[in-house]
């Protein structure tokens, strides 16, 4: 089966698993710390085995516990290394500073504590208050770097902001994308003169031992679907995270994280989701996306998807003897009001399968109503569904078959080929009529032996020749044109 010459790879969602340990958690208690540590090792082994990517973000109290407790028998399950060094060197997991900055330790101090564990601190700000000053600090202070409040000679300058929130997480920003925020007051304005780059964390997506994993997976699938069905543009840059807390980590919670990773695997295999660490996302945005700002919000995701399965055959592509099309090809369906002036309500694209003649068109804007289905293909006459329009019920699966009867098209504007009705082929210049203009276009392309996925190839065999011209000529001879309500 021939396929159209167009990219099928969808713009991906870059997905990161993140965790926090907090300064209020009692890591100075050895038994508490060692229990959490063993769960971290278990989770790290599982995440690496399943191909996910993890940014492990630590506050000062946990890091001091690592410094004080990671020795002797404690480090036997981490190759004789402290847990931070082992995560980075043996498991390829990124370890970032995380600070509430409400205590003595600011972000530079937390970065310094990382350095004391034998690693180079990352350049990621692992969580911050996007619109609030706390203890004299705010994220703007990090723009040019800062010295420690406790370790006053240590200087740290990050590159990446991640996890912008609010006090007690009551109204956190939920954004997909990457940009350089200008200031606290103009957080959503991209300013190329700024150093710090913000990576959006997406919808609030947290996993605890009481979480319903399918809900967390659906949040990722909703974003993937929005890209697939053109609710979000394929030119966007999409970031998302799934998050959990180390302080509550237990066997049940680890199992749920594993279930989540397994459940998104089909989207990963399809290339619709790519696991990446935050610094890898930053690098991709800088080099592969040209540092262009992009942002959209979780609230912009469609809440309802409506599927319309349409069966349609392009006359020139159809071989009655084989009962198949020469190739699958893309069609656009416009939903239009069934009363004048037949306003456009929604649109969707899908490929018409060469064997089933069916495409699944997904709409996310249209409300309940009665609409005409306006069919547009690259070299066929624009064709409307039958008179009066069709009922449309959002959130359901609907079906319509143009091939069963000529009456399925407005004005019976189709041709019978074999025992199936087809939309007319040969309309190559999009002027609503098959005439000399279309024939000249086809003739000129045939004269230079044009081939491939071209509009003048009306029979779909990737070669422009006499047969394509005859299809247009025959339909021009009977004055085929678009019939509008």
What can you tell me about this protein's structure?
The protein is α/β, with parallel strands linked by helices and about 475 residues long. It folds into 2 domains: about 15-300, Uncharacterised protein PF12979, DUF3863 (TIM Barrel, Alpha-Beta Barrel), CATH 3.20.20.510; about 305-475, Immunoglobulin-like, CATH 2.60.40. About 25% of the residues lie in helices and about 25% in strands. The strands form 7 sheets. Strands 1, 2, 3, 10 and 11 form a 5-stranded parallel β-sheet that branches. Strands 4-7-9-8-12 form a 5-stranded mixed β-sheet, with helices on one face. Strands 16, 17, 19, 20 and 21 form a 5-stranded antiparallel β-sheet that branches. Helix 9 (about 435-445) packs antiparallel against helix 10 (about 465-475). The radius of gyration is 29 Å and the shape is elongated. The two termini are about 35 Å apart. Residues about 1-5 have low confidence and may be disordered.
List keywords for this structure.
485 residues; alpha/beta; TIM Barrel; Immunoglobulin-like; 2 domains; 5-stranded parallel β-sheet; 10 helices; 24 strands; 24% helix; elongated; disordered N terminus
